[in-house]
Specification:
- This protein has 275 residues and is of the alpha/beta class.
- It has a domain of 192 residues: Rossmann fold (3-Layer(aba) Sandwich), CATH 3.40.50.720.
- It is built from ten helices and twelve strands.
- The chain has a six-stranded parallel beta sheet, sandwiched between helices. It has a two-stranded parallel sheet with strand order 6-9. Strands 7-12 form a two-stranded parallel ribbon.
- The mean pLDDT is 97.
- The chain binds NADP nicotinamide-adenine-dinucleotide phosphate.
- The site of NADP nicotinamide-adenine-dinucleotide phosphate has 29 residues, from helix 1, helix 4 and strand 4.
């Protein structure tokens, strides 16, 4: 199979490369390939891909809040370009989206058909990507994930460990709640999903729900830093450009109906530290 992977140097893109290494891969990432260039469409369509994975995005949520125009340019217009490649070639496309498309005011986990209502520019631009892809691509998987982490990425576990080692004490919010996604588990699930031809919208995180505070405490415990004090704070005490949804765990109902589930996040975290 010929597979295009956008954002191939990122956390999800790198893991996809490993899982699909026996296939013919077209790796699209900056600076060589820029999904926002309109000529990308003809260039990639000429490759006649059998499958397109599209995780490339502007993922720095605070940078998106500071420059919403750029966020839309990469996350919506860039996705439109990749969707046009899928439309012209008939290739199925997997668009990786986010739990942040929800506003975080729910009292139970969001399901795949829950109404979206993004509350920050990153999330709005990712939802615009979902919408344009849905208009253009017939064979589309939208896969929402949350709090992605993989070895080598600049993710929450890496930041917590860096901060613990630097300051010896941490303040972490208790009122941002979701479910972590261990990227190697995600790509195993994606590998199964793309064989189903059940196109639609999916929620794929590890199972279990936690706050950023709970996640940080477990990261420190599993990395042998359990004695580092973690002071619980609320988001009012934490100044940042973007506003994350407060309660945004996403529930896997539809992939589970196809037999695709992911293990508890604590077990995945143990692999992150042992791999
Ligand atoms: N990380 C999370 O916690 C999280 C949570 C929910 C959803 N998601 C979604 O999951 C997907 C993958 O996330 P990730 O953690 O793998 O992100 P990542 O590590 O930041 O990787 C994204 C990759 O896309 C590249 N990219 C950015 N703009 C591009 C462009 N114009 N053309 C081509 N490539 C471009 C980035 O390059 P540069 O690094 O040079 O910019 C980077 O290599 C994203 O769509 C994100 O919205 C992520």
């Amino acid at each position: 199979m010929k597979i295009i992977i956008t954002g191939a140097k990122g956390q999800v893109g790198s893991a996809l490369q490993r899982v699909f290494r026996e296939h013919s891969l077209i790796l699209a990432d900056l600076p060589e390939f820029d999904i926002t260039r309109p000529e990308t469409v003809a260039q990639f369509a000429a490759e006649k891909p059998d499958l397109i994975f599209h995780p490339a995005a502007m993922t720095n949520v605070d940078a998106c809040a500071r420059d919403p125009h750029l966020a839309y340019h990469v996350n919506a217009f860039g996705t439109q370009n990749m969707a046009l490649v899928a439309q012209r070639t008939g290739a199925p496309m997997v668009y990786i989206s986010t739990n942040e498309v929800f506003d975080g005011t729910a009292s139970e986990p969001y399901h795949e058909f829950s109404p979206t209502n993004p509350i920050n520019p990153y999330a709005a631009s990712k939802l615009a990507g979902e919408q344009i892809a849905a208009r253009l691509v017939q064979k589309l998987y939208i896969v929402r994930i949350a709090w992605a982490f993989a070895k080598g990425g600049n993710n929450f576990p890496a930041k917590i460990i860096r901060a613990a080692d630097k300051y010896g004490e941490l303040k972490v919010v208790t009122d941002e709640i979701s479910s972590p996604t261990y990227v190697p588990d995600l790509v195993d699930a994606l590998k199964k999903l793309v064989t189903t031809d059940h196109f639609g919208t999916y929620h794929l995180t590890n199972s279990g729900i936690c706050s950023r505070y709970d996640f940080a405490v477990e990261i420190l415990r599993q990395s042998g830093r359990g004695s580092v004090p973690v002071i619980p704070i609320t988001s009012e005490g934490f100044n940042r450009a973007s506003t994350p949804p407060k309660y945004a765990p996403i529930q896997n109902n539809l992939a589970a109906a196809l037999g695709i589930t992911m293990r508890p996040w604590q077990e995945a975290l143990a692999d992150y530290f042992s791999d």
